[in-house]
Predict the structure.
Amino acid sequence: MFDFLANPTRFMRIADWLFRPLLLITAVTMAYGLYLGLFASPPDYQQGETVRIIYIHVPAAWLALFGYVGLGLCGLFYIVWRHPLADIAARAIAPVGAMFAFLTLVTGALWGKPMWGAWWVWDARLTSMLILFFFYLGVIALANGFDRPERGSRPAALLALVGLINVPIVKFSVDWWHTLHQPASILRSGGPAIDPSMLTPLILMLIACHGYFALVVIMRMRALITARRIATLALKRLGNNGGIS
């Protein structure tokens, strides 16, 4: 599959075909999910109106993890097979994943203050998510920390692979340790533990945020591919002119 998509021209053609349907699905689910989550769903009997933060917090946390798995896979494909599109995909994913990890931490703090009485605690889930955010920042810094962008690709890919160790720690921290953070309430044995009136907007927001993630990554990849083509053409023109600009 990746070999098939590894051709930048083929990827651009598929991305063009996917973009409009994905945009429509994202817009519809986002609008309806926000309406249900903010206005139509009831407040929680314990958390009150604060429960509405989960409609942003939970999708953001899922995308932070999902994005990092994608980042790690891109790192693997780049190191093993030297796919240039894997490097482009990693550079496109990293800032978007970092944004969702940051959003997870911020919305978690906003929820934690009224529920736990503190903006932050060194809880296993919170701490491992903070580490995930730092891994994102490290990958971005390495990928862009060299005069020639390709020199940063390999160290960034290696760090992305190392950071994969943290992903299961984030996911299962609530099962492995006693934490303040509540255990999984959607993907759990016995089915979701959330009332359908809250589960429906949450699922819609999950679909919308996944669509948004895919749209932004596609747009960033297209921009990076175009920028590299322009740079290649500029180098060829410079070479044809005998190195004189």
The chain has a mean pLDDT of 89. Residues 9-180+196-239 form one domain. Residues 41 and 197 are 6 Å apart (CA to CA). The two ends are 41 Å apart (CA to CA).
